[in-house]
Amino acid sequence: MRLFTPEAMRAADAQAVELGYPSLLLMEAAGRAVAEAARAAWPEAESYAVVAGKGNNGGDGLVAARWLHLWGREVRVYAPEGHRGDAALARAALAAHLEIEPLEAVDLREADVVVDALFGTGLTRPLEGAWAELAERINAADRPVVAVDVPSGLPYAPHVRADLTVALAGLKPDHVFYPGRSACGRIQLAPIGLPPALLEPRELPELLDPETMRALLPSRPGHAHKGSVGRVLVVGGAAEYTGAPALAALGAYRAGAGLVTVAYPSDARVDPPLEAVRLPVSRWQDARLFEAKAEALAVGMGGGSGGGAAARAALKLKKPTVLDADALYPEVVKAYAAAAVPTVITPHPGEAARLLETGVGTVVQDPLGSACELARRFRTTAVLKGGPTVLCEPGRAAVNTTGNPAMATGGAGDVLSGAIAAFLAAGLAPWDAARLGVYLHGLAGDHLGRIGLTAHELAEALPVVREKLELGYLRPYWEAGLLSPR
Ligand SMILES: NC(=O)C1=CN([C@@H]2O[C@H](COP(=O)(O)OP(=O)(O)OC[C@H]3O[C@@H](n4cnc5c(N)ncnc54)[C@H](OP(=O)(O)O)[C@@H]3O)[C@@H](O)[C@H]2O)[C@@H](O)CC1
Ligand SMILES: [K+]
């Protein structure tokens, strides 16, 4: 599954038409899918109000109105004049059954459900005047709202707030990024007949789904031993951050590492898990660091002001490395790129801004663009943490579909770095280790769910959700009937 920009969606649509697929069939499938989704979501509803706009989103609404009417529901339809193309045909088909009232007559008092078909992906600017007023009225009516494709007005304000959004053909940024996502309510993806080949353009970001992630899980052969399934060296810790390396070690073990060694300054009271090998060093150039048995490293967590020095020392091992927190300085990450060491960097927006020498606001406003700039500038796999976490490496990008705001808690990032390092150590390429680590970590957060969860619990939940994934129990959130994780 890919994340479609409105332009990419239009391009797929146009390609289907070029291949000979009649565009009216797409609109018919879209409108009917909306009607079916509304009927399934509110089976008791008898009366509907369909508020349609002047473009194809409105056309979809007119098709939905016809089907709801044919199924015996009470339907009032409000739409402006002047539809063109397929929307005009949808209007003609509806007009054979029902009177279409002007938008000035909108009355939502008798409606059990409101269908919002004002604007979809063709919106080019914020709603104003009468259009803005209509969106506000839909919200004020306090009725269940089903949005056609996207809640009208997004990504700007004002916009409709829906209970159910029927995403047509593919998911778009407002179904995935905030604030759009919180205005969508439940999200249901409706295939409308586009040929599957048009729905997987490789240049668009991938939305992580359970099936793809399951295929990445490293296998555990019967003759496995602790030295054969991936050993991780965690390098970090400082006087004031003693928990971070311990949580990274726990994350690595809970993601399946065979052996974890934790190297930390001997004057810091780091307390690694009982199962870890301890490597207190009085200086980062200690020879024992370079002899540590590990196939991958997690570096920088809780490193404080010594994080850069720790990362420079760890670079000498020349092993695949996750760079986090106090290792995330431009000169450090550039040194790894220059040494051609495979890296995954895991910044939060503040650290990403530091690396890109820009403001946090810029990063938050365009997470995908920022992650891709990090990947390009530092020749690395970039994991930009957030809601949702996005990933990029030169030539490809992905958006995570698991996780929730309860995971905004101290130490959660350390667990993630440890988990990604465990997958690197198991032999996965940086892109696969990063995607799998991020996906499982979010899944652990969704499994725990409640605000107040701790990083420690996140690590503990990793084997539980891994098993669910392995057994094929999971479905992507956009499949019918599933709640989007906020
Ligand atoms: N595979 C697919 O993708 C399929 C997509 N389908 C559907 O098509 C939808 C996209 O349809 P669309 O392109 O006609 O755009 P839509 O959102 O109806 O609005 C366009 C109109 O709004 C206007 N306008 C813009 N901003 C405005 C503003 N602020 N305030 C006022 N007016 C504004 C703009 O004109 P403008 O004023 O900019 O000249 C234009 O007249 C998509 O979401 C899906 O529902 C399906 O039918 C089948 C297959
Ligand atoms: K809409």
UniProtKB/TrEMBL annotation:
User: Which residues of the sequence carry a binding annotation for K(+)?
Assistant: 57, 116, 152
Q: Which CDD domains match?
A: YXKO-related
Q: Which residues bind AMP?
A: 385-389, 413
User: Which reaction(s) does the protein catalyse, per the Swiss-Prot or TrEMBL entry?
Assistant: (6S)-NADHX + ADP = AMP + phosphate + NADH + H(+); (6S)-NADPHX + ADP = AMP + phosphate + NADPH + H(+); (6R)-NADHX = (6S)-NADHX; (6R)-NADPHX = (6S)-NADPHX
Cited Pfam families: Carb_kinase (PF01256), YjeF_N (PF03853)
Cofactor binding: number and manner: Binds 1 potassium ion per subunit.
* Essential cofactor(s): Mg(2+); K(+)
**Coiled coil feature spans:** none
**What sequence ranges are listed for the domain YjeF N-terminal?**
9-200
One GO biological process term: metabolite repair
Q: GO molecular function: any one? A: kinase activity
InterPro entries from the entry?
Carbohydrate_kinase_pred_CS (IPR017953), CARKD (IPR000631), Nnr (IPR030677), Ribokinase-like (IPR029056), YjeF_N_dom (IPR004443), YjeF_N_dom_sf (IPR036652)
- Fill in the subunit field for this protein: Homotetramer.
What this chain does, per the entry, is described as:
Catalyzes the dehydration of the S-form of NAD(P)HX at the expense of ADP, which is converted to AMP. Together with NAD(P)HX epimerase, which catalyzes the epimerization of the S- and R-forms, the enzyme allows the repair of both epimers of NAD(P)HX, a damaged form of NAD(P)H that is a result of enzymatic or heat-dependent hydration. Catalyzes the epimerization of the S- and R-forms of NAD(P)HX, a damaged form of NAD(P)H that is a result of enzymatic or heat-dependent hydration. This is a prerequisite for the S-specific NAD(P)H-hydrate dehydratase to allow the repair of both epimers of NAD(P)HX.
Cross-referenced PANTHER family: ATP-DEPENDENT (S)-NAD(P)H-HYDRATE DEHYDRATASE, ATP-DEPENDENT (S)-NAD(P)H-HYDRATE DEHYDRATASE FAMILY MEMBER
Tell me which family the UniProt entry assigns to this protein.
Belongs to the NnrE/AIBP family.
- Protein name from the UniProt record: Bifunctional NAD(P)H-hydrate repair enzyme
Which organism does this sequence originate in? Oceanithermus profundus (strain DSM 14977 / NBRC 100410 / VKM B-2274 / 506)
The gene from which this protein is expressed is: nnrD
